[in-house]
Amino acid sequence: MEIINTIGRRKTSVARIYMKPGKGEISVNNRTIETYFPFDLHQIVVKQPLALVGEDSTYDIKINVDGGGIKGQAEAARMAIARALCEINEEHRGALKKEGFLTRDSRMVERKKPGRRKARRKFQFSKR
Q1: For the purposes of burial, counting CB atoms within 10 Å of the CB of 87, is it exposed (0-12), middle (13-18) or buried (19 or more)?
Q2: How confident is the model over 31-74, as pLDDT tens digits?
Q3: HEC sequence for the chain
Q4: How confident is the model at residue 83 (pLDDT cuts 50, 70, 90)?
Q5: How many Cα atoms within 13 Å fall on the side-chain side of residue 50?
Q6: pTM of the prediction?
Q7: Which residues lie across from 89 on neighbouring strands?
Q8: What Rg do the C-alpha atoms of the chain give, in angstroms?
């Protein structure tokens, strides 16, 4: 198997991953996953697709993430890993799709409009 390259997106985050057979090492922006995502929850989110299909220590993954916040980056990486697992073995698709790892979550922050305080918040009305 050669190196598999996929992309995942969430909010304004973009994650590009390179997956190859190995010992299960995950690096994010040339750092270990533990240093890049210090909270356990974000590490669990990134590893969810691997745990679901039972291939935790089968692949070495190099992740490049850009944009957005830490949660969006973790979820973008999760989507990219799920797509790569489907590319490797098509039988994983059903389980990953059922969990929602292959679905692009397109919710983004609404832009601020002119003449308003925020995206929808209007200025306080004063009768007198």
Answers
A1: middle
A2: 999 999 999 999 999 999 999 999 888 999 999 999 999 999 99
A3: CCCEEEEEEECCEEEEEEEEECCCCEEECCEEHHHHCCCHHHHHHHHHHHHHHCCCCCEEEEEEEECCCHHHHHHHHHHHHHHHHHHHCHHHHHHHHHHCCCCCCCCCCCCCCCCCCCCCCCCCCCCC
A4: very high
A5: 22
A6: 0.90
A7: none
A8: 18
Place of tokens 């692009």: 104
Taking the C-alpha atoms of residue 87 and residue 43, their distance in angstroms, rounded to an integer, is: 22
Gap between the terminal Cα atoms of the chain: 73
With contact defined as beta carbons under 8 Å apart, do 20 and 27 qualify? no
Q: Token digits for 59?
A: 């692949």
Residue 72 φ then ψ, to 5°: -65, -35
Residue bearing tokens 């040339």? 30
Q: Hey, what are 18's tokens?
A: 């390179």
| Sheet-wide strand order for 26-28 | 4-10, 13-21, 59-66, 26-28, 31-32
> Is residue 105 within 8 Å of 10, Cβ to Cβ?
yes
